[in-house]
Amino acid sequence: MKQQEQFSSRLGFILSAAGAAIGLGAIWKFPYIAGENGGGAFLLLFLIFTMILGLPLLLAEFSIGRTAQQNAVRSFQIIAPGTKWYLIGILGMISVFVLLSFYSVVGGWIITYFWKMITGQLNGLTEPEYAEIFASTIANPAISLGAQLFFMIITIIVITRGVQNGIEQANKIMMPALAILFIILVIRSVTLDGASAGFSFLFYPDFSKVTAHTVLDAMGQSFFTLSLGVSAMITYSSYLPKDQNMPKSAVSIVAMNIMVVLLAGLVIFPAVFAFGMEPDAGPTLLFNVLPTIFSQMPAGMLFFAVFLIVFLFATLTSAFSMLEIIVAVLSRGNKRKRKQWAWIIGFAIFLFGIPSSLSFGLLSDVSLFGKSWFDLADYMVSNVFMPTGALLISIFISFKMKKSALYEEIKSGSNLRFSVFQAWFFLIRYIVPVLIILVMLDVIKG
């Protein structure tokens, strides 16, 4: 049985899938991890692992979704009936439920910062003052919860409108806008006096700074930035017609993800070095350091507003895919049930995320396993759920699906040569699982 809806075009699918991938991992997490790991060497490792780990996994998820043309749970049931492999889809649902519960908190921070910026509350402050205003903002329960709820309501409304009128239409607007605004920001950043030091940091590898942890960080980042392992791409590819070129779409999405990562680096690092800041400021880089930098530029707060819009668009497009995974399973293609489940699950995610939102204020003294609720949720998704899901998907597609049928599915709509398929199959069966296990072992040791 086919899904009731499909993407109306290959472009709509690519923009939506790219929107799912391009989020906090590319714009927030990548810059500060690259900053902490020496810049250029980390970027080079990230690009290598994206090609040998991220791209094969992305095509694997696409193959599962389009083969069955059903949601993340039903796809595994159709391909491997009478087995427990469908639990991968269940794991994906749990993963995105937890992920969106704290992801929406950060989305709320962005909305709050945008409001503070347009009302003039962020003008002309020093870096300590920006740090103080960020800390007070995320510690305020009314502001934090209100912004988080507002972010979730936007996400819910888009999902209630369905695949073509909701997800696809929103991404067709947001993704081109994101690219245009990003380019404007890059032009401003790279024309600053002293920006060349940022170029050197980002593009000239210093291998003396590379450690085993740097390699594993780059490896993990390569599939975190593509939203792999949570069945998001299985869900989106189930809406993809059989005559569409799946390998080409996968390459396009990876290319767009890399482009955004590079644009984020070109916005942040030249500006950071131009104003004598440190690139290894960690997770607060975008909320403390960047406002300080933009405030020192001519018309800087206008450019900061543009950056916040880019950041918000990227965060929302990823949030759409997270909620869609769960709603697709529960609604089973029924439009009326889609609207009901979107509101039910969206509100449940908000409620589950309340402790994450309060982790920086009322619940700041509460910890589980030595971590705040926010940090624990982030740790579980990033270090346990996602790599586990990615590992199981790589094993499932290479050992459970028939190789001949898999080749026919991937070749459908394309002119993929068998030799290229063989190389991909070797990677997904032998190389990808080993790399993921190395990441997971590093997490266990860490």
TrEMBL record:
> Which family would the database say this protein is a member of?
Belongs to the sodium:neurotransmitter symporter (SNF) (TC 2.A.22) family.
UniProt GO MF annotations: symporter activity
Pfam families in the record: SNF (PF00209)
UniProt keyword terms in alphabetical order: Membrane, Symport, Transmembrane, Transmembrane helix, Transport
Q: Where in the cell is it found?
A: Membrane
Question: Per the record's keyword annotation, is Transmembrane helix included, yes or no?
Answer: yes
Gene Ontology cellular-component terms for this entry are: membrane
Source organism per UniProt: Compostibacillus humi
Q: What membrane topology does the UniProt entry give?
A: Multi-pass membrane protein
- Source taxon at top rank: Bacteria
Q: What is this protein called?
A: Transporter
Q: Which gene encodes it?
A: yocR
Membrane-spanning regions, if any? 12-30, 42-64, 85-113, 133-159, 180-203, 223-241, 253-277, 297-330, 342-360, 380-399, 420-441
In terms of NCBIfam families, this protein maps to: Na_transp (NF037979)
InterPro entries from the entry? Na/ntran_symport, SNS_sf, YocR/YhdH-like
